[in-house]
Amino acid sequence: MRFFTVFDVVENKAKQLGHTEKEMYDFFKKLKVKKKDLLIYKDNGIIPYEENILSGILSYLEMSKVELELTLGRVPSGFDEAFLKNTKEIAKLLEESMKKEEAAEGNSQKALQPPPFYSSKLGNLYNGDCLELFKVVPDASVDCIFADPPFNLDKEYDEGVSDKISFSGYLDWYFKWIDECVRVLKPGGSLFIYNIPKWNTYLSEYLYGKMNFRNWIAVDMKASLPIQNKLYPAHYSLLYYVKGEKPKTFNPQRIPLQTCPHCGKEIKDYGGYKNKMNPNGVTVSDVWSDIFPVRHKNSKNRKFNELSVKLLDRVISMSTNEGDVVLDPFGGSGTTFAVSELLGRKWIGFELGNCEIIKERLENKDKDKALFEKVYEEKNKLFPDKVKELRKKNGLWLAEDFQKGSLDENNAEDDKKAEKAVEENESDEQNIQTELKLS
Question: Do residue 45 and residue 122 come from a single domain?
């Protein structure tokens, strides 16, 4: 296993030595290194700066600081040039080691195609470990992957499935299935990873050089409790990467203009540019503040976390077309597959836990159809019908006013003022530049 934290390297050494947890901490206690000093390095990749802590760790590991950095998969500071000069020798050693590992593990054996747990006209759901199930998916055969993996927050799910493992164990597992995602995606295929920012920072670094970064999407979720001595966590991160230079499919998504729920007036003042607003709505940015958590029992398909239909509709509609293949390696409640069915996308799904929930959901689509209709009441509209009626009542402008060419005099005047302001700003900038040159 690859190591990412000093604490995990220490724990692994304790196992090799046959030490209990108490014996391990007793060793450090003799060196005046406290348990709490070691635990600081359990959930981060920092190498200790304190000389006594670092010295104690290196003593227990029986290695130098350079060896410790190499064990953590890093080129030690100051050795970059030496590393680059010896890349051929290093590559030869790594290739020989890889061949031995492949021979020992029998990686050349082809995986058998397991029977699907459930099938529809559009997709197949498999019950099992995603790392095993990925083996049966051909190279470059998927158009879009959406993954919402466990967040490693010590939660218990159906059938005893837990998501609490060591820092290094989690990232090691994470990177293995990410490599599989890269393999099965078509050129131009899209990858979306939904997680807490902490883990996606490590993932974005890992994906650098493997895929092309598109966006870090902040999905606004002000639902968690404040954490002492930290900023209030108010978003999940949705990483968006593409295999190759650009996505083979990108369908812009549009949402309504933000308006006051009481009077219907637009919250942001667009001045004289109202006539330039797209009647189909505002283009979605990389901050999604209109996605709400699924908490009401009437909307949920299981007692655990569930993603909204709106989120998956946006992701799948944006990155695929009808008939494309969508893959989700962590099926959960089956939202990805339900939305794929409603959008006419083919799909492949994996789920380690309870698949009966997903099967029942896909066989009874009425609830998802109703949720889908609600999503499309507001999608690709500058003003939803209810907002439009409120704005009419209060004498506010509508997109139809400009489309019909009935732009009133006040709005025309606003346009002239805006143009004049731009001209004045440009003139001011030119005067400033002239003064600077003269001075």
Answer: no
